[in-house]
Specification:
The chain is about 45% helix and about 15% strand. The protein is α+β, with helices and mostly antiparallel strands. Strands 6-5-7-8 form a 4-stranded parallel beta sheet, sandwiched between helices. It has a 4-stranded antiparallel beta sheet with strand order 11-12-14-13, with helices on one face. The structure holds pyridoxal-5'-phosphate. Pyridoxal-5'-phosphate (PLP) binds next to helix 7. Its cofactor is pyridoxal 5'-phosphate.
Length: about 450
């Protein structure tokens, strides 16, 4: 069975794929014409296509395989758990050892004031759960009028109705009915939207768009503000240093809960355990997913502050929310094995003190390239802006076509680099060595050179 699956030719796979498989976030017609790229195997920080070509995975899968591939201890932990107890639920007052142990281990690495966790199977479901928790919290706290949620333009919070409503992507909103109680404010994207302002002044202005929106809606009606500490899918947007302290001040001043979406920033990506730690802000809810299992099993959840958990745990009756696979034993086993590696190998502090600064220093060298208007990043997240003119920050066509070219050239050079419009982004596995970081930079530069040869 397994061998028949792996011995088909790439064109056989492509034909079957085109006939039967509807890919996520894809233009089905264009994909049918091009044929998809078949990835068959992975090891370390490399993926291999069906022809055996090695490609450096500069995006850690979809931001999730932070420890790279071939982590045998995670695979073994999942297998052992499937043999011991493949499934049981935590409804009806039941529980099982892996879900209890994982809750405790997550509380250990989370900020001190967060000691409770609710599990889901994805980041989108974690954000759905945040909406359910918010309503429940404010009802029990005696402020039931607080029902509106504020998010940001160009945010990404997932693809369920709640996740995509919280997200601020216009091209997604056009394809469904968004939730009416979600409102959006400005993003702190200085390069595209800062104009002549200094970055720090722009950061304050972007934060104050939240306060203006709160004043407009009435603080008594606003439940929470949600934001990624560093926007990921929006283009690895690192806010100016002025931004987060002002956001926190505004939330506290108006008694509005702060949700930091840690689905990308969590588990060491920035060199701290969570993005909230990186910016020294204190959140009330922290949805997480992706790297918590190194991508080996689907798992997400919400870390809940003591302030919220204490209210939820009072005698308000049942919280009528949960998923069949909330706290799935095999997913919890994968997360426990992932936390073991992160802690035993000091991965987070290595990213903070050594490999992260090295990646950022080398990435910043790309700013000298004629196509590059800005480089930025934090920890193991990095972005660069493709421009036709550095001084005015002007784009080539402004339709994302330069980014798409650069992405294709990068793939041809043996590096997965993602394009968000004309912004190129990477989020490589945290285990990359200095030599592998050098290889990533060389390949990114080759992609830029090839793109320049086409555009200039
Ligand atoms: C990926 C992502 C999500 C959604 O997670 P899924 O597991 O795809 O549902 C939510 N928030 C952020 C910040 C993400 O990057």
């Amino acid at each position: 069975m397994v061998s028949s699956r792996t011995t088909r030719s790439s064109s056989d796979w492509q034909q079957l794929d085109q006939r039967h498989y509807l890919h996520p976030f894809s233009d089905f017609k264009a994909l049918g014409q091009q044929g998809s790229q078949i990835i068959s195997r992975a090891e370390g920080i490399y993926i291999y296509d069906n022809e055996g070509r090695q490609i450096l995975d500069g995006m850690s899968g979809l931001w999730c395989c932070s420890l790279g591939y071939g982590q045998q201890s995670i695979a073994a932990a999942v297998y052992a758990q499937l043999q011991e107890l493949p499934y049981y639920n935590s409804f009806f007052q039941c529980a099982h050892p892996p879900v209890i142990e994982l809750s405790q281990r997550l509380a250990e690495v989370a900020p001190k004031h967060m000691n409770n966790v609710f599990f889901t199977s994805s980041g989108s479901e974690a954000n759905d759960t945040c909406l359910r928790l918010l309503r429940r919290y404010w009802d029990l706290a005696g402020k039931p009028s607080k029902r509106l949620v504020i998010s940001r333009r160009n945010a990404y919070h997932g693809s369920t109705i709640a996740g995509a409503s919280l997200g601020g992507m216009g091209f997604m909103h056009q394809q469904f009915e968004t939730l009416s109680y979600v409102h959006h404010v400005d993003q702190p994207y200085w390069f595209d939207e800062g104009g002549d302002m200094e970055p720090e002044a722009f950061g304050l202005q972007a934060a104050r768009s939240l306060e203006l929106k709160i004043d407009e809606l009435g603080a008594e009606n606003v439940a929470a503000f949600i934001a990624e500490p560093i926007q990921g899918a929006g283009g690895v947007i690192v806010p100016p240093a002025s931004y987060w302290p002002e956001i926190e001040r505004i939330c506290r001043a108006h008694d509005i809960l702060l949700i930091t979406d840690e689905v990308i920033c969590g588990f060491g990506r920035t060199g701290e355990w969570f993005g909230a730690d990186y910016f020294s802000v204190s959140a009330d809810l922290m949805p997480f997913a992706k790297a918590v299992t190194n991508g080996y099993q689907p798992l997400g959840g919400v870390l809940v502050s003591d302030r919220c958990a204490d209210v939820l745990k009072t005698d308000g009756g049942e919280f009528a929310h949960g998923y069949t696979y909330s706290g799935h034993p095999a997913a919890c086993a994968a997360a426990l094995a992932t936390l073991d590696i992160l802690q035993e190998q000091n991965i987070v502090t290595t990213v903070r003190d050594s490999s992260g600064p090295y990646l950022q220093r080398r990435w910043a060298e790309l700013a000298e390239h004629p196509l590059v208007g800005e480089t930025r990043g934090a920890g193991f997240l990095a972005a660069l802006e493709l421009v036709s003119d550095k001084a005015s920050r002007a784009r080539f066509d402004g339709d994302g076509s330069s980014g798409a070219r650069c992405r294709d050239n990068s793939m041809a050079a043996g590096l997965v680099m993602r394009a968000v419009g004309d912004t190129m982004i990477v989020a490589p596995p945290l285990v990359a060595t200095h030599a592998q970081i050098d290889e990533l930079i060389d390949k990114a530069r080759a992609a830029l050179d090839a793109t320049a040869a086409e555009l200039i």
